[in-house]
């Protein structure tokens, strides 16, 4: 039903690159091809090579370089009159904006990308852009607004037999079920995503699916060893492909698993590691969530209650400033858990 996964963001002369290519290799090949296209005055090729450069920088956590690259790709595509390439550049910019926590900008760029993709007749960039909008809403906690879109995109991806997009949609819907307490449904969907990704040789999608399974195994089954084993397997792929962001989120989940198991010293150290990784790539959401885990771990290890309460109050402001609609619930849950306030509303921590 599903073919081998491919990377449609690697275009022009770069279509030979695999979805599993190391990002440092993608960056090197993309930069070389971009320079060659610029020397030849081939603007359309330069725009599409620049897209690969932008995506490699983004996934490596090199935010400033990624920002310059997608904008340059867009300008070059516009000069070449290549509407499809313009759409792909906007998709990259919107995805980067979401990664940086700039959600209103992400919505705007991704919506424009979907419109241009429709105009260009490029169903793939249209689908990826709509998927980006759905993921933005999910991360913000606006499940009611984006669940239907996730399901629509899943149906479209299944119909086309596109493994990578099917895996993405399954993981997004699974995360919504996990965050609303539907652990069994979430597990089944993460498991299907992992199976499809493995058969399609999509190591990135497989790593994210394993992370989701580890979360469910930890929360529902309280099986710490199995959860850590799954995260360890996912980490191998993250390191092989130099997936800086995915690796940092893997480490944050490892902190979650250790914290839930009462292994607070280990959790503290892993959260601190994840925090450092997110800071290096200027990723505000991951940074804030790692700080939350670190605060909770330190509190369990005897930190002064007043200091803990003060940092949680600051974190609430930071999370709300990022635009996470469920931020207050997350912090209130932490306060309750640590005995700092009466029981408040509850929401699941940590989407992907």
In short:
The chain is mainly alpha-helical. The chain has helices at 23-40, 43-59, 63-80, 83-99, 103-120, 123-140, 143-160, 163-179, 183-199, 203-221, 224-240, 244-260, 264-280, 284-300, 305-322, 327-337.
CATH level-1 class of the largest domain: Mainly Alpha
Number of structural domains: 3
**What shape does the CA trace take?**
globular
- CATH third-level topology of the largest domain: Serine Threonine Protein Phosphatase 5, Tetratricopeptide repeat
Proportion of residues in extended strands? under 5%
Radius of gyration: 20 Å
Overall pLDDT score: 92
Q: Give the total of beta strands.
A: 0
Considering DSSP H and I runs of 4 or more, what fraction of the residues is helical? over 70%
Major sheet attributes: none
Spans with pLDDT under 50 lasting ≥5 residues? Answer: 342-352
- CATH architecture type of the largest domain: Alpha Horseshoe
- The CATH superfamily of the largest domain is Tetratricopeptide repeat domain
| N-to-C span | 27 Å
Structure classification: mainly alpha
The run of helices and strands is HHHHHHHHHHHHHHHH
Number of helices: 16
